[in-house]
Amino acid sequence: MQTKRMTYPGRFLPYALLAPQVIVTLIFFIWPAGQALYQSLLREDAFGLKTTFVGFENFVRLFRDGSYLNSLSVTAVFAVGTTLLSMTMALLLASTVNRMIRSRSTYTTLLVWPYAIAPALAGVLWWFIFNPSIGIVPYMLEMVGYRWNHRNSGSDAMLLVIFAAAWKQISYNFLFFLAGLQSIPQSLIEAASIDGASPTKRFWTIIFPLLTPTTFFLLVVNVVYAMFDTFAIIHSTTAGGPAQATNILVYKVYADGFVGLNLGSSAAQSVILMVIVVALTMIQFRFIERRVNY
Amino acid sequence: MVENRPWANLIAHIVLISGVALVAFPVYVAIVASTHSLSGLLQGTLPLLPGGHGIENYTRMWQAGVSNAGAPPAALMLWNSFIMAMAITVGKLSISLLSAFAIVYFRFRFRMFFFWVIFVTLMLPVEVRIIPTFQVVADLKMLNSFAGLSIPLIASATATFLFRQFFMTIPEEMLEAARVDGAGPLKFFKDILMPLSVTNIAALFVIMFIYGWNQYLWPLIITTDPDYYTIVMGIQRMTSEENPQWQLVMAAVVMAALPPVLVILFMQRLFVKGLTETEK
């Protein structure tokens, strides 16, 4: 890693400058992560009196545990659903805004503000409009003959949290798609239309391929978002229910550790999640290094 | 666009207006709900036009809160949120500026090691290591305090890397000139680097403030004393009741969402800059 050609000499100063950041990191990041690793190898008895070293047994148990496997598949459905819904909506809106000239900035302003709303609040908002007894959407659905009830139906609950999570993420995806669209040279699009390509054809053969770097980047970011930043949405709405239908991995770590007080298992789940984050971060960095194009 | 098609333009406007309406709909419903009485909300279906109880609901939420649900007055919770968000933002920015300065302008032993220590924070979101972090904070007796709410969240790899990138683009001549004129490292930092970084600091400030304001899980687990409740987590106390007072919940939601939304609307250019640069 490079520095400036000319640097300041320093024996103590650089360490002093780094100290606050490094101390906070060591105390609140590295140490707890180490603790999680360590606890994942232990088992505590029901009263917390005795702990025994059990090696990888916590991990083995997890992968034999139906509720953990269920949580894995629930997380996959949730992440894929949120990512697809939010990115499709954002791409549609961004490519439409991009063809506007005078109204572009107005529409952009009107579409970016949901980024500011906390995931927990997004959860409460959607929970409210989908509320089976007083919400507006179940009322409208009933007119077409569908009884919405996310308190009993696992698939309704899953749809609800996907809507809330995707809604919150649309503005983020929109901004990145818009930036990607604006970096496509206008001459390519003009050339294609002189050759007689229709707007749809131009989109699929020129614009969409040139957007792949942005799309891949957003795919990773959205999966990370859906897996780790949506705790608040789940906690403020379904609390993992009904019957664990929305019990995603980050929520399960919290529920098993704080509510179920099963520290060994919760720590093992933490370790698995850390491995997933590290893998996703690596993928993200590789994409940033070489933003491939066709 | 390349060709002029009035029909296509019309369709585009329709798509965008429905998009904007869809995005705004949940918030519109919240605003409407916060202006009705509870009995008005529970009468069958939700009204779609504002009612006449707005001032009453907001005053009650602002001054009294919902004490039987354990939610203190919104004024207190908003103030707590503000303190926490500012502490996190200022903390993140200052320690990141200092560490980026050290990494770029000094050569010292273990530089790479420190760089990696900071990098690791990127990979360990709070949600993932929640229980051991809680234990550390409990051992340090930082539960129910503003220090506990903010300090564990102020390490920032993204801010450090962003400032590092930016410092690398500052011409070498700046440092050479400063040294010829006899400026020491701290003077150089204060009088040259800081003024040059103002735009970057402001852009990051917007992003970090929203991040801090919207914290949920962390305040939820480390505060048990209502005096330290933040607004985003306080709302959860009200909705987890058996029969939530929806009109007050929605008034609180609107008040909780307003500050960060205003920040984005008034500082949109800085916000977009901050967002696109932190992710690079």
Question: Largest sheet of chain B at a glance?
Answer: none
Mean pLDDT of chain B: 85
Strand content of chain B: under 5%
CATH topology of chain A: MetI-like fold
Average pLDDT of chain A: 84
Structure notes:
The complex is a heterodimer of chains A (294) and B (280). Chain A has 13 helices and two strands. By secondary structure, chain A is mainly alpha-helical. Chain A has a single domain (67-289), classed as MetI-like fold (Orthogonal Bundle), CATH 1.10.3720. A two-stranded antiparallel ribbon of chain A has the order 1-2. In chain A, a hairpin with a 6-residue loop joins β1 (42-44) and β2. Chain A is globular. In chain A, 40% of the residues are buried. Chain B is an all-alpha fold. Chain B is built from 15 helices and no strands. Chain B has helices at residues 6-33, 38-42, 54-63, 74-105, 111-120, 130-139, 146-150, 157-168, 172-180, 185-196, 198-213, 217-222, 231-239, 246-266, 268-278. The interface between A and B is large, with 100 and 105 residues.
Features:
heterodimer; A: mainly alpha; MetI-like fold; two-stranded antiparallel sheet; 13 helices; B: 280 residues; mainly alpha; globular; membrane (chain A); cell inner membrane (chain A)
List the SSEs and their pairings.
The complex is a heterodimer of chains A (294) and B (280).
Chain A: H1 13-39, E1 42-44, E2 51-53, H2 57-64, H3 66-98, H4 104-112, H5 119-129, H6 136-143, H7 154-182, H8 186-194, H9 199-210, H10 212-228, H11 231-236, H12 249-259, H13 263-289
Antiparallel strand pairs in A: 1-2
Helix pairs in contact in A: 1-13, 2-13, 3-7, 3-10, 5-7, 7-10, 8-9, 10-13, 12-13
Chain B: H1 6-33, H2 38-42, H3 54-63, H4 74-105, H5 111-120, H6 130-139, H7 146-150, H8 157-168, H9 172-180, H10 185-196, H11 198-213, H12 217-222, H13 231-239, H14 246-266, H15 268-278
Helix pairs in contact in B: 1-14, 3-14, 4-8, 4-11, 11-15, 13-14, 14-15
